Recover the amino acids of this structure.
């Protein structure tokens, strides 16, 4: 019963979103802490573009399955999409070859914090509704 309530797409996507936001926060914090490190290259977390491809059905290669026993090619579930950490080696901001812009990082940090709070609040709300159902036991 509990798995039926927590195994929904919304619940799974919120959990995945919290994991991605947590990773993104660590990467941004690492960028900020290395703002004055010579030759340091900033890193970014990419996730949303990959997830959009899955939801739009725009996977690069899709194999045709004529039998359920065939191995699926290109059929990716949203739960199999993982965030990627990429290093920005193209842009150079300063003479010491460091490409971290503190203003950009602080802006990204604030945006990521807001996204995390929104997802955490929504997930808490889902648990609150579940708690109401359990404690009231169907009474109005």
């Amino acid at each position: 019963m509990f798995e039926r309530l927590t195994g929904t797409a919304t619940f799974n996507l919120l959990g995945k979103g919290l994991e991605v936001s947590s990773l993104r926060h660590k990467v941004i914090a690492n960028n900020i802490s290395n703002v004055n490190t010579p030759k340091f290259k900033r890193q970014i977390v990419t996730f949303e573009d990959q997830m959009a491809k899955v939801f739009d059905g725009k996977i690069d290669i899709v194999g045709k399955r004529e039998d359920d026993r065939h191995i699926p090619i290109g059929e990716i579930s949203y739960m199999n999409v993982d965030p990627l950490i990429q290093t920005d080696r193209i842009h150079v901001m300063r003479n010491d070859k460091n490409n971290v812009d503190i203003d950009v990082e602080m802006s990204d940090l604030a945006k990521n914090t807001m996204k995390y709070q929104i997802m955490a609040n929504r997930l808490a709300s889902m648990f609150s509704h579940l708690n109401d159902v359990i404690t009231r036991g169907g009474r109005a």
About this structure: The first strand starts at residue 43 and ends at 46.
